[in-house]
Amino acid sequence: MNDLKVTASGSRGSIAPRLRVAIVTETYPPEVNGVAMTLGRIVAALLQRGHVVQLLRPRQFDEVSPPEQVDLEQILFRGMPIPTYPELRVGFPSRGRLLKLWKQKRPDIVHVVTEGPLGWSAVNAAHALHLPVSSSFHTNFQSYSRYYGMGWFRTLIEGYLRRLHNRTLATMVPTRAMMQDLQALAFDHVTLLSRGVETRQFSADKRSQGLRERWGVGADDLVIMNVGRLAKEKNIGVVVAAFKAIAHRLPTARLVFVGDGPERKQLKENCPIAIYAGVQQGEALAMHYASADVFLFPSLTETFGNVVPEALASGLAVVSYDRAAARELITTELNGVAVPGNAEIDFIEAALSLALNRQRQSTIRKNAAASVAHLHWDAIYDRFVEVLSDVIQLHGQQHAGAASIKSLDLVESGCRLD
Q: Which listed CATH number (3.65.10.10, 2.120.10.30, 3.40.50.2000, 3.40.50.620) goes with 204-371?
């Protein structure tokens, strides 16, 4: 597209091409998960910056038609529930429909967010039409396999993901550690696209004594919290084990789970005294975060873990394994505790030690919010557009180079080009 747009800063002296971006994903708001929420922010930012977005995704449960919005075209596809994520749907293969759509109105670039059959079809269709393609790596599906008795399946999943992503000219990942991990697995064109945190939403100022009273805790009682999907791959059992160790020493401590998932019933049986607050969003979510004291996040499968910076911004003392967002954001004893390795006993001991030392908690919590105050989403949005623009340029160079080689071959074979 040839028209121009003003950049996010609104500066008239800084203009960039207005892009038509086709985004292919199997999850999108109002679905609640890290991928959907991050993508929702990026799409909103693209529209705000004057770009045009074609969003291609499976039809969500009970969805009739998506709301109309200027410069946003939503194309819905048939899908089926994901076995371990029944609340989400995976799109069916749709190469033919994508070819028809993009022949009628070519996007400047195709960005594939999720790696299901719909994402694979999008890569195939884009290659057939000589469109530039970028992708994101959001979910460690290959690591999930061991939590569902399919560890043998890991190599096959890694091979599939590598083939898909290596057919794109950029695979965006949220941490430097993930970049190194994928590069070690022979993924090409891996580039960093970090995550931000909305500090105007998540803040210690949202703390509510009224909410704490509804939880049955006093002003000085300790509240342990976990936010996220209640599922095996989130290592939720470690949260319960750590809390039981804490409650043995601090009987008035309470555990609050914010979120829902397939393990909720089992968790209630194992830990009936915990509070199960369900899914919370917006200001209610911010209030829940800020009304806790210590945040436990033992997941070993995250590519990032948006809840870590959200908890830090909310002024909580975070205990997490030293990986993904925690490795990027937490300095132990300064603004949280990053537990080395992956041993459950080390995590439990770290959580118990922090829970028993209120002075240490206080010091960490005072530093937590300031440690993520610099994580502005605007910089993330600008970086996303920068990567898309680089991919478009690289694709053009490769295409021009291939055309030059073909022309040279024709001349050498005695063919005339005019």
A: 3.40.50.2000
The beta strands (E) that lie in 25-170 are given as 52-58, 72-77, 79-82, 85-91, 109-112, 133-136
Count Cβ atoms within 10 A of the Cβ of residue 325 and give its class: 0-12 exposed, 13-18 middle, 19 or more buried.
Answer: buried
Predicted confidence (pLDDT) per residue in 391-412, tens digit = 999 999 987 766 555 555 555 5
Residue 266: pLDDT above 50? yes
Look over the chain and give the mean of its residue pLDDT values, rounded to a whole number: 89
Q: Give residue-wise pLDDT tens across range 199-219.
A: 999 999 999 999 999 999 998
Q: 47, 384 in Cβ contact below 8 A? A: no
Residue (of 366, 346, 359, 102) closest to 241 by Cα position: 346
Distance CA 35, CA 228 (A): 12
Two tokens at 379? 């910089």
Domain 4-196+377-410 has CATH 3.40.50.2000: yes
d(CA 89, CA 293): 35
Residue 417 structure tokens: 């080009």
Q: At what angle do helices 344-356 and 358-371 cross, to 10 degrees?
A: 100
Side chain identity, residue 352: L
Phi, psi of 396 (to 5 degrees): -60, -40
Would 4-196+377-410 and 204-371 be classified into the same CATH topology?
yes
pTM score, whole prediction: 0.84
Bond before 132 cis per omega within 30 degrees: no
Question: Which three-class secondary structure state does DSSP give residue 7?
Answer: coil
Binning the chain into helix, strand and coil, the percentages to the nearest 5 are 45, 20, 35
Q: Which two tokens stand for residue 317?
A: 């003392």
| Max CA pair span of the chain | 89
Measured distance CA(226)–CA(312) in Å, rounded: 13
What tokens does 386 get?
Answer: 């920068």
- 25, amino acid identity: T
| 74-83, 144-153, 236-245: least confident range | 144-153
